[in-house]
């Protein structure tokens, strides 16, 4: 389809904005090859002429139809770009009070910075045994898929939790571990996530720092391995890898503690 067929009257586009990052506008006049401007009208009624480079027109991003706004999977959108992703997440978070959205097999989470009642035992049981995509996006759905693939194929599975400072990575990892402990019917009296997170004061004492966004930001990455027995019940966990910001390492010494284990002092 030619660009002139997409950028026609009444279609809507996204325009960069300093205050709102992106603003929606409606096309008032059909775009024709060779045009150096695009006549637009914003939602507040103001009009503007959007300048285009005639040699290589940088046309604004097209906006998705309203029927697609709020989809629980970003891959279902007709146009997948930055403003479309941000707007869809905003609609789901602000209007629908939903923090989770899929992007294929990736789960996108928006930190609400408050406690939500969507992680109880009843919710865990609801997601147990379900296929990913059968129910609303949730961290439990991702954990169930990993657990099911491990049991079905007898192969190790990995869940990568990433995000900027304050995004909620530690909390998300804790909910995933809680799910594993519940569905595997672990006989331990102490929740596995509590045991794993008990090491946090040590790792955070070395690896945390104050940033412009977070007074206690984790400036390190770690790989936590959860072990299961042949009945797929949790039998333990350990931290295999600990990655620290290079700028935080000023010197190093290796000592042997009374147990004969090498300890790296930073």
Q: What does the model show?
A:
By secondary structure, the protein is of the alpha+beta class. 26% of the residues lie in helices and 25% in strands. It has 7 helices and 13 strands. Strand 12 (253-256) and strand 13 (262-265) form a beta hairpin. Helix 4 packs across helix 5. The model is unreliable at 254-266 (pLDDT under 50).
> Which percent range fits the helix content?
25-40%
Roughly what is the average pLDDT, rounded to an integer?
Answer: 84
Binned strand content: 15-25%
- Number of continuous helical runs: 7
Give the neighbour order of strands across the main sheet. Answer: 4-3-2-1-5
Main beta sheet, described? 5 strands, antiparallel
- As residue ranges, the low-confidence spans are 254-266
Summarize the helix and strand pattern as letters: HEEEEEHEEHHHHHEEEEEE
The Rg value, from CA coordinates, equals 24 Å
Structural class by sheet pairing and helices: alpha+beta
Distance N to C terminus: 59 Å
């Amino acid at each position: 389809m030619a660009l002139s067929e997409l950028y026609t009257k009444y279609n809507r586009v996204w325009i960069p904005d300093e205050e709102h990052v992106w603003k929606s506008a409606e096309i008032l006049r059909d775009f024709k090859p060779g045009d150096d401007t695009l006549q637009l009208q914003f939602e507040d009624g103001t009009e503007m002429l959007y300048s285009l480079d005639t040699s290589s027109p940088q046309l604004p991003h097209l906006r998705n139809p309203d029927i697609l706004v709020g989809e629980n999977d970003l891959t279902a959108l007709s146009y997948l770009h930055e403003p479309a992703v941000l707007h869809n997440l905003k609609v789901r978070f602000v209007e629908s009070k939903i923090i989770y959205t899929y992007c294929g097999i990736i789960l996108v989470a928006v930190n609400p910075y408050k406690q939500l009642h969507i992680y109880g035992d009843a919710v865990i049981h609801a997601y147990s045994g379900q296929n990913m995509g059968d129910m609303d996006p949730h961290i439990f759905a991702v954990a169930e898929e990993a657990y099911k693939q491990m049991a079905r194929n007898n192969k190790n599975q990995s869940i990568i939790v990433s995000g900027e400072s304050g995004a909620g990575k530690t909390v998300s990892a804790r909910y995933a571990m809680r799910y594993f402990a519940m569905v595997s019917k672990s006989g331990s009296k102490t929740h596995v996530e509590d045991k794993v997170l008990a090491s946090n004061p040590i790792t955070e004492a070395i690896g945390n720092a104050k940033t412009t966004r977070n007074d206690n930001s984790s400036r390190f990455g770690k790989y936590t391995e959860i072990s299961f027995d042949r009945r797929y019940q949790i039998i333990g966990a350990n931290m295999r890898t600990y990655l620290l910001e290079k700028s935080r390492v000023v010197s190093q010494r290796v000592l042997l503690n009374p147990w004969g284990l090498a300890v790296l002092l930073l």
